[in-house]
């Protein structure tokens, strides 16, 4: 859908990331939110909308968090789309502002868990997985995405060496990001020979569950100086596509891709950076196909021809992504958005993409009976 | 009970899926079938996901299937499975029927290939697993 060109992201924030939660979830959410408001140059009293994405938040919700934070709101939103939710929350915040329901919306995403917490979460993610996945010993998301990766490899000839380029280059990006939990050097050999988790998925195909939160402020771009606002040119979400298919080799981005680029006025060749949802390299690969960076099935060759570091031919997940920074639950769906905003404000330090003007960010999540049910994408431009 | 004395997790049984769960306790694979549009569905739903009819019944499937794709899970979600790794977790296509996630039992996991023909475990062996479980047709 076409967005108002006067509304965008005017601030961002994030917490430190820790492997084991050392403070309550609400503390992480508060820190990220306060950071984002400060980065926007706003006061707490300017915030009249709040959007939250968090798996562990229930029984609390956006309204009880408003009570905790002492916010008086005219609009509140609770994300339901897992790692696709944070982008969707920004799109919905823009609609709320366009409709006059709010003027400045704080969007926060995060969770505070660890490896065992992730397994508990996946066991109880939805009725279908609880009843028809867990009793098989399914291994959480790793087992499900192993099925998808093998199918892609056997259908299109995609190799682990090709997919490994994503993990290896993102690790190089993480070495320029002090917030990343995994910053040690990683070679393609390291990737290939890592411990098997759910064959063909190995250790460096997997994210490290952790605690942390990310946040952005959505408001009128004229509230910040030129260069500090990030315009939202277009954005879409989609859920449960294709219905009934367990391990599809497409995610739903292909349904709105043409509209996304038509609304934005830009296509894949116009982006200075891409932040793709990286729960697994195979899903980054499928996103690159669905979003038109190469044809379906052609991502293996595409991966071989490109480099994905911050100074590469296609800067991808320039902060290291979830694969190196860690996955703070639903916060994993906002880490790319915050990194894109940081880059487009030219505040990315040693990993700054030269003269970054436009970026694409996509989200994916809410694992159902076999695959992620939700997808989202947003096109951003430096104002 | 498994080797390490942990019970397998079991499906939550309710009015939607009880006929399916009870059938598998006897080694029978029962699929939900829609009386209005005739389509079969796995897993059991509160309404037909194709036409939204509530006219839902059950049909038996003989369990003949093809292995579509699979993963070899080394780190299962529940301790009951820890001594049985790798867990062969597969997407399977039932012959003339829907696809489903299923566990495949095979003493030698290196024998597993996409495209293999599968059949249900015999009732006596199958009953120890909480959901329909398959083996390669040798």
Automatic annotation (TrEMBL), chain A:
<dbReference type="Pfam" id="PF22691">
    <property type="entry name" value="Thiolase_C_1"/>
</dbReference>
<dbReference type="InterPro" id="IPR016039">
    <property type="entry name" value="Thiolase-like"/>
</dbReference>
<keyword id="KW-0808">Transferase</keyword>
<dbReference type="InterPro" id="IPR055140">
    <property type="entry name" value="Thiolase_C_2"/>
</dbReference>
<dbReference type="GO" id="GO:0003988">
    <property type="term" value="F:acetyl-CoA C-acyltransferase activity"/>
</dbReference>
<dbReference type="InterPro" id="IPR002155">
    <property type="entry name" value="Thiolase"/>
</dbReference>
<protein>
    <submittedName>
        <fullName>Acetyl-CoA acetyltransferase</fullName>
    </submittedName>
</protein>
<feature type="domain" description="Thiolase C-terminal">
    <location>
        <begin position="261"/>
        <end position="369"/>
    </location>
</feature>
TrEMBL record, chain B:
<dbReference type="InterPro" id="IPR052513">
    <property type="entry name" value="Thioester_dehydratase-like"/>
</dbReference>
<dbReference type="InterPro" id="IPR022002">
    <property type="entry name" value="ChsH2_Znr"/>
</dbReference>
<dbReference type="Pfam" id="PF01796">
    <property type="entry name" value="OB_ChsH2_C"/>
</dbReference>
<dbReference type="InterPro" id="IPR002878">
    <property type="entry name" value="ChsH2_C"/>
</dbReference>
<dbReference type="InterPro" id="IPR012340">
    <property type="entry name" value="NA-bd_OB-fold"/>
</dbReference>
<protein>
    <recommendedName>
        <fullName>DUF35 domain-containing protein</fullName>
    </recommendedName>
</protein>
<feature type="domain" description="ChsH2 C-terminal OB-fold">
    <location>
        <begin position="58"/>
        <end position="119"/>
    </location>
</feature>
<dbReference type="Pfam" id="PF12172">
    <property type="entry name" value="zf-ChsH2"/>
</dbReference>
<feature type="domain" description="ChsH2 rubredoxin-like zinc ribbon">
    <location>
        <begin position="22"/>
        <end position="56"/>
    </location>
</feature>
